[in-house]
Amino acid sequence: MKVNDLKHILFLDIETVAEKASFHDLDQRKQELWAKKSSFFREAEHHSPEELYNKAGIYAEFGKVVVISVGYFSQLEPQPEFRITAFADHDEKKVLQQTADLLNGHFNHKETRLCAHNGKEFDFPYMARRMLIHGIALPNALQLSGKKPWEINHLDTLELWKFGDYKHFTSLDLLAAIFEIESSKDDIDGSQVNEVYYKASDLERITEYCKRDVSVLVQVFLKLNQLPLLKEENIIMV
């Protein structure tokens, strides 16, 4: 990848939680559907659907997006400048609409590429599904229908690291450690987001964690493409 191509990439990370604070807050129909879904989990033999509900945020059918952080190169010369911002709200539709507006505005051109870690299996489809649920028209960057594989401009750092080894999963944090990049997990990690949201009611803490994930994501991406890492002063949180 050429350095100039970086200006067309929108790096992103999403944070999701269960759609309700507890299993008992779901209506009867959703409770039955979650019980059926969770029965296939490895832990189902020893845990009830209620106990497994803390995993609901992983699934777009049972979860919601509370934060979407995005990062982009606002300039490449004379020094690169990478800006990170976040859309965060208890109202999921607002978060998704703000993201859709960004993709329909500044990042609405054929060169635009989205980049996330495990984005092809999680972030991109999750956002698209939740947008459809809320009746938000899919931005072109998330619209896959009718496109040929080479017309889908999605980048995935997990896929780049796999080199075709599709049975292998490597976390973003592990890649950061391998490349000696500072971790974003110094406060919380993804497994704690649901608890921080519903028990601590701390959306700001989740937002800061999500923004740090984007800063790690871009550094890992640069390493995978054998490009120079960003200096800390060139990563601007807004």
How are strands sequenced across the largest beta sheet? 5-4-1-2-3-6
Q: What number of structural domains do the residues give?
A: 1
Described by strand count, sense and barrel closure, the largest sheet is:
6 strands, mixed
CATH architecture: 2-Layer Sandwich
Instruction: Identify the quaternary structure here.
Output: single chain
Estimate the global geometry from the Cα principal axes. globular
Remind me, CATH topology?
Answer: Nucleotidyltransferase, domain 5
Strands, count: 6
- What is the ordering of alpha helices and beta strands? EHHEEHEHEHHHHE
Percent of residues in helices comes to 25-40%
- Report the radius of gyration as a whole number of Å: 18 Å
Q: Quote the beta fraction.
A: 15-25%
- Distance between the first and last residues' Cα: 27 Å
Number of helical runs?
8
Q: What is the residue-mean pLDDT, rounded to a whole number?
A: 93
Which CATH first-tier class would you pick? Answer: Alpha Beta
Question: Structural class, please?
Answer: alpha/beta
Task: Sum up the structure in keywords.
238 residues, 8 helices, six-stranded mixed beta sheet, Nucleotidyltransferase, domain 5, alpha/beta
Could you describe the 3D structure shown?
The chain is α/β, with parallel strands linked by helices. It has one domain (3-19, 62-237): Nucleotidyltransferase, domain 5, CATH 3.30.420. It is built from 8 helices and 6 strands; from the N terminus they run βααββαβαβααααβ. Strands 5-4-1-2-3-6 form a 6-stranded mixed beta sheet, with helices on both faces. Strand 4, helix 4 and strand 5 form a beta-alpha-beta unit. Helix 6 packs across helix 8 (203-224). The longest helix has 22 residues, at 203-224. The protein is globular, with a radius of gyration of 18 Å. The mean pLDDT is 93. Keywords: Exonuclease, Hydrolase, Nuclease. Residues 62-226 form the Predicted 3'-5' exonuclease PolB-like domain. This is 3'-5' exonuclease. One of its GO terms (molecular function) is exonuclease activity.
